């Protein structure tokens, strides 16, 4: 039975071919449907193709604007000229395309019904370490005991370690926590697009402007993102094996604590990755010794700061 299609260049009739082998359905992992249709009245192959697609949209609609047969999407169309003038055959293949990775490797793992919603914190791997830190301090936490050679009362230097006549101190190197942590999680393939990559690039080497992961501003330094494509396969609603991929992403951070510096009678607060700048001048004492006197201490922010919510992490 033929149906008439009205195009700008005339009427074209289309119907299922009555030849042997004109319809074939293949079951299994690579399920497919192959069907041949006859097109009459087309002036050329291009017109026959346009008419066939129009006819398929009406008679093989998937209900969502696409073309399908037995829940298999239209994969390819081949138009061939027939023996008679103006008669063409259209060979249609319905199947799911087989996705290939950039390296043509097989899926690295199998996932059934993957969830492409935004990631949740319980789906993430969180690793951290606190080793390897050091700091030079000039003031201790507590003067435990003191004594003088002549038995006089000890001078209170305010906890300075190795105080100098100019008010500076020799100080000492101590071991401090150097907290770093990594968040690894799975992301939909559409999550890391061009705009997101630009955002991540801008935030790399920046500190947090607002509280992030439980740490106050300028105490977290974003070290960057490492992401790789992970290929997978799963079974869809009609029992077909479909290949796809997602991102496995790893976000790296370093943390520095808040510190307090006493400058004369003033206590300055240094946020994590702020820098300390000391302005000093040299002078000679009564004995002719060259000494250095610290005149001013500045807390300076060397890193750009951003709101890390732009990373869209599930905190």
Distance between the amino and carboxyl termini: 61 Å
What is the number of E strands?
20
Order of helices and strands: EEEEHEEEEEEEEHEEEEEEEE
Proportion of helical residues? under 10%
Q: Determine the strand fraction and express it as a percent band.
A: 35-45%
Shape label: rod-shaped
Give the radius of gyration.
37 Å
Low-confidence segments, given as residue ranges, are 99-122
Number of helices: 2
Label the structural class: mainly beta
Mean pLDDT: 80
* Main sheet specs: 7 strands, antiparallel
Describe this structure in words.
The protein is mostly beta strands and 315 residues long. It is built from two helices and 20 strands. It has helices at 45-59, 194-203, and strands at residues 2-7, 10-16, 23-26, 32-40, 68-69, 72-81, 87-94, 109-110, 125-129, 133-137, 172-176, 180-187, 207-208, 220-235, 241-255, 259-263, 266-270, 275-284, 290-300, 305-306. Strands 1, 2, 3, 4, 5, 6 and 7 form a seven-stranded antiparallel β-sheet that branches. A five-stranded mixed β-sheet has the order 8-14-15-12-9. Strand 14 (220-235) and strand 15 form a beta hairpin.
């Amino acid at each position: 039975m033929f149906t008439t299609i009205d195009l700008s260049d005339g009427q074209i009739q289309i119907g299922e071919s009555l030849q042997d082998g004109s319809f074939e359905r293949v079951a299994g992992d690579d399920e497919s449907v192959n069907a041949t249709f006859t097109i009459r009245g087309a002036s050329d192959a291009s017109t026959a193709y346009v008419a066939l697609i129009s006819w398929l949209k009406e008679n093989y609609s998937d209900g969502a604007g696409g073309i399908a047969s037995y829940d298999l999407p239209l994969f390819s169309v081949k138009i061939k000229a027939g023996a008679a003038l103006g008669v063409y055959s259209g060979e249609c293949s319905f199947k799911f395309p087989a996705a290939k990775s950039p390296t043509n490797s097989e899926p690295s793992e199998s996932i059934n019904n993957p969830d492409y919603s935004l990631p949740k914190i319980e789906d993430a791997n969180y690793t951290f370490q606190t080793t390897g830190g050091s700091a030079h301090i000039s003031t201790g936490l507590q003067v435990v005991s003191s004594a003088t050679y002549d038995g006089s009362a000890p001078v209170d230097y305010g906890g300075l370690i190795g105080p100098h006549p100019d008010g500076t101190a020799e100080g000492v190197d101590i071991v401090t926590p150097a907290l770093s942590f990594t968040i690894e999680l799975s992301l939909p393939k559409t999550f890391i697009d061009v705009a997101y990559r630009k955002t991540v690039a801008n935030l790399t080497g920046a500190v947090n402007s607002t509280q992030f992961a439980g740490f106050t501003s300028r105490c977290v330094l974003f070290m960057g993102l490492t992401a790789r494509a992970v290929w997978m396969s799963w079974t869809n609603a009609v029992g077909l094996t479909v290949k796809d991929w997602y991102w496995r992403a790893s976000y790296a951070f370093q943390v520095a604590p808040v510190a307090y510096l006493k400058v004369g009678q003033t206590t300055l607060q240094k946020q994590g990755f702020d820098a300390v700048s000391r302005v000093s001048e040299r002078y000679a004492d009564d004995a002719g010794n060259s000494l250095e006197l610290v005149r001013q201490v500045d807390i300076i922010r060397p890193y750009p700061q951003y709101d890390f919510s732009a990373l869209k992490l599930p905190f």
